[in-house]
Amino acid sequence: MASRYGSPLALALILLAGAVCQGSDLPYDPLPYEIYWNVADSDPPGIDISDYNIFPANYTQTGNSCSNPGCSSWTQGVFPTISSTGHTVNGGVPQRANLSEHLWTLARDVTHWIPDPDWAGNAVLDFESWTTVWELNTGGDGEDWHSRRYLEYSLELEKEKYPDWDTEELYLLARKNFNISALDFFAETLRTLATLRPKAKWGFYGLPMNFNGPCDGNGTSMVCGYDSGVGKLYRQFSDEQNLVWESSTALYPSIYLPPGRTVDENAAYVHSVIKETVRKAEDRIPVYGFHWNYYHGGKSLLNMDDLKSGLVGPYDAGAKGVVIWGSSSERALPEFLDYVRDHMGPLARNFTEQMCKCSQTYCHGHGRCMPSSSTNCQCYPGYSGPSCEKADPKRLHVNSN
């Protein structure tokens, strides 16, 4: 499939030929729920993934990989990092980094990563060495995920400048300088890329953070993460990253499911992460959860209940859709291909067709049924009324440009 997008209506007709999901004169993508394939940058062998109403691999690019015709892998600029052996790149921490060099590298390389200036897919940055909130960098010194070594190095820098200051003063200054610079680094990255490829949906993978605990309550009344008793603190961390959300054109939180938890815990966890992300999106940009068909660690495939929670559960929490991630090692495994054919694929197709029919039947194709089990309509921008039957020509004109 060519990388240049056609009209949203054409895409809907291609993907949903068996259950046409189109609205009359609708200037938006009329799919109530979008599912994207991002397993090892290519579609599964012997399977036409679009048969399941799933956008194929060339609609999503993540990290340094590429799936677009003619694209080249890239470095995602020059993020400041510190290796486990202490080697620093671009200053090591954001407050010492050369932001101009990073942005120049992005501008030079993004045209190779996304050759088509009209490409309108998911452009997902994957940088996990550190994150933009000091307290969330909790990984061990030998780890490469949100490592504490960035905080330790930040403290060392302040000690060198102010050797007579006490520990608390140094801590507060190091935290302040790190957070300000980290936010600016992420935000300027997003703004620069959105200027160069304005139709792509830019965002960082794994943000907001996917807190999977603690959980309160029992059964279907269980709440976890952002909805739990410590949710206020977690939401405060999200609020501290407002500059990142404001600079994004889509949000891509991780909803990978940990092993060893109950079905209710996993469902509550997914709902919590997506609901918080939708809160920060503020109806301005879409939310796509990153779903993995395996439990975190990649050793076993999700059971059917957990598959439903991860693949279609985000809909009721307000997500526009999900991105199905997976590794190159699993892509051609017979058990994985059988899982796609027998479980994941049919679930994706049945749910998207059900939501399209509900939209057409109860929302005039100008909104989506929310929640999925109801006939209540959540109207698309530019439409209003109990069944989204009223159009605002001014809003339609503005939003279609």
What labels would you give this structure?
alpha/beta, 38% helix, single chain, disordered N terminus, 14 strands, 401 residues, 3-stranded parallel β-sheet, globular, 12 helices
Structure description:
With 401 residues, this protein is of the alpha/beta class. It has helices at residues 8-15, 99-113, 149-161, 167-196, 231-239, 242-247, 263-281, 304-311, 313-316, 328-331, 334-362, 393-399, and strands at residues 34-39, 60-62, 81-82, 88-89, 122-125, 201-204, 215-216, 223-224, 288-292, 321-326, 367-369, 377-379, 383-384, 390-391. The strands form six sheets. It has a three-stranded parallel sheet with strand order 1-10-9. Strands 2-5-6 form a three-stranded parallel sheet, covered by helices on one side. A two-stranded antiparallel sheet has the order 3-4. Helix 2 (99-113) runs parallel beside helix 4, helix 3 (149-161) packs across helix 4 (167-196) and helix 8 crosses helix 11 (334-362). The radius of gyration is 22 Å and the shape is globular.
